[in-house]
Amino acid sequence: MKIKIFSILFFLTAFSVSAQIKGVVKDSITGQPIPYVSIWVQNENYGSTTEENGTFSINVSEKSKNLIFSALGYEKKIVKIAEVREVNLVQTTYQLDEIIISNRKEKREIEIGQTDNAILEAFDNGPRIDTKFFPYYASYKKTRFIKKITIFTDSKIDNASIKIHFYKVDSNGFPADEILDKNLIVSVGKGVNKTAFNVTKFNLKMPLEGLFVGFEKLIIESNKFEKSMLDKNTNTLQTLRTYYPFVLYNFVEKDFLYTFSGGKWSRQTNQSDGNSQNKIMIYEPAINLILTN
């Protein structure tokens, strides 16, 4: 397997002249801290994540911008950077689909999402959500339960964690509501690995419209990796920082790519109007699903 590491230095040094803003996110009713809240700088491709105790820090270049706070089970909130010392999120009431527990046999399994491309590449994708679309096929009829999700990763630290998202598909083909109502945080080992995570407890089925699976990098202390390097221009030591793990990508031919960044979804197609029938070559997260009966 050939692994290439790209785009690391930019992410590490991009905030060198930024101011650090700190705050805490809490439940508006209980006052309890909320962990793993996604924080986005509105209309920008950088952000942060709250720690387990609800605290966060974020480097910003312009204090006039807004931050978007998003967490499963809570209403999204947009706050001016100058007012983020304490952010209180309001709980939402989920109208969940009825869950029917079926008598599973789990005697048949298929893995979907594999590609012919044997070269995996690693990028520091920053604090955005990259997705992979899984269409539904009639051949899945007898194996519609999602048993496991498998992810290829590269990490310089052990037990690095990421957040996994499952999205429904709206009428325009965009990622829509999240299928889960609670965070799915998973950890991976050091080095290059393919790790499988069992998700049977969520009783997920492949929707007939298909679904999007995405991952989100967690900008938290336990994922941080720092390295000192000599700046040849100034002859001083600089501390370079990045966050693991890296999810690996395949370079594949697809109709589109959806990415969430700066608080909104963007769609990449062959043409800007999105009407082209021609496929494009994209870097797609190396994520597979294992279905069972």
Plain-language structure description:
The protein has 293 residues and is mostly beta strands. It folds into 2 domains: 18-89, Sandwich (Immunoglobulin-like); 109-292, Sandwich (Jelly Rolls), CATH 2.60.120. It is 2% helix and 49% strand. Strands 1, 9, 10, 12, 16, 20, 23 and 24 form an 8-stranded mixed beta sheet that branches. Strands 11, 13, 14, 15, 17, 21 and 22 form a 7-stranded antiparallel beta sheet that branches. Strand 6 and strand 7 form a beta hairpin. The longest helix has 6 residues, at 8-13. The two termini are 32 Å apart. Mean pLDDT is 86; it is low at 7-16. InterPro entries: CarboxyPept-like_regulatory (IPR008969). Keywords: Carboxypeptidase, Hydrolase, Protease, Signal. Residues 1-19 form the signal peptide. One of its GO terms (molecular function) is carboxypeptidase activity.
Task: Say what the CATH topology of the largest domain is.
Answer: Jelly Rolls
CATH architecture of the largest domain: Sandwich
Q: How far apart lie the N and C ends?
A: 32 Å
Largest sheet: 8 strands, mixed
Give the beta-strand count: 24
Query: Rg, please?
Result: 20 Å
**Total number of distinct structural domains:** 2
Can you give the helix content as a percent range?
under 10%
* Tally of contiguous helical segments: 1
Topology, element by element:
Layout: E1 3-6, H1 8-13, E2 19-27, E3 38-41, E4 47-49, E5 55-60, E6 66-70, E7 77-80, E8 86-89, E9 109-112, E10 120-123, E11 129-134, E12 145-155, E13 160-169, E14 175-178, E15 184-188, E16 191-198, E17 211-217, E18 224-231, E19 236-243, E20 246-254, E21 257-261, E22 264-268, E23 280-285, E24 287-292
Parallel strand pairs: 1-10, 2-8
Antiparallel strand pairs: 2-5, 3-4, 3-6, 6-7, 9-24, 10-20, 11-17, 11-21, 12-16, 12-20, 12-24, 13-14, 13-15, 13-17, 18-19, 20-23, 21-22
